[in-house]
Amino acid sequence: ILKANGKGFCSGHAIGNNAVDYPEFVEGAKVMGTPWKPQTDLFVKPILNLWEFSKPTIAQVHGYCVGGGTHYGLTTDIVIAAEDAYFSYPPLQGFGMPSGECSIEPWIFMNWRRAAYYLYLAEVIDARRALEVGLVNEVVPRDQLDARVEAIARHIAQAPLTTLLATKANLKRAWELMGMRVHWQSSNDLVALASISKDVQQLIQTVFKDKVLPSEQARRQAAAAAQTDGGATA
């Protein structure tokens, strides 16, 4: 069971000064010209470790599950969400970062158009909507979340361990044959390229200058778009 003990499930990766928060990115860029290698180590390898965990996994999600936290909340085999849970990837609009490894779960569990809408607009999806579009298995009241997840785990554990291991391996292999692992591994290539582009760097500088979170910047940009031409979009 993967769960958190705070106000929310996970707020994602730190947004700040790379020299302070991610010194390995700065060092990697000096050596290789891009932070590709350290970004792969931080963003891709941990999620592959979760994907490769041989036993069944359950995410117990409450409150916020945003940014890089979404791949921990959505890559488990089963996701049980509290009624106060919500999902979003604000860094695309709010920090200029392509979704990278976080773009994979939406198109797997939703569909192309739903995933595009969710990612391009930095949409916030509440628990009920997440259930409707297939991101989570169940939604329960917050005070029943622990008990429900533990009950599901106990139910699963009644089966022979060998059977569970074989079943999970079978499920994973089907997705891997469709390219899921390769997609995860290659996702960071685009993130590394985008992160050094001029337009992305310009937005990052704006966010730091204004001292706002990516989620707030995403809301600002949505409001600005709504005011343009009376809300018309092209």
From TrEMBL:
Pfam families: ECH_1. The lineage of its organism: Bacteria, Bacillati, Actinomycetota, Actinomycetes, Mycobacteriales. PANTHER family: ENOYL-COA HYDRATASE (PTHR43802), IP11341P-RELATED (PTHR43802:SF1). Belongs to the enoyl-CoA hydratase/isomerase family. One of its GO terms (molecular function) is enoyl-CoA hydratase activity. Could possibly oxidize fatty acids using specific components. SUPFAM superfamilies: ClpP/crotonase. It catalyses: a 4-saturated-(3S)-3-hydroxyacyl-CoA = a (3E)-enoyl-CoA + H2O; a (3S)-3-hydroxyacyl-CoA = a (2E)-enoyl-CoA + H2O. This is Enoyl-CoA hydratase. Keywords: Fatty acid metabolism, Lipid metabolism. InterPro entries: ClpP/crotonase-like_dom_sf, Enoyl-CoA_hyd/isom_CS, Enoyl-CoA_hydra/iso. GO terms for biological process: fatty acid metabolic process.
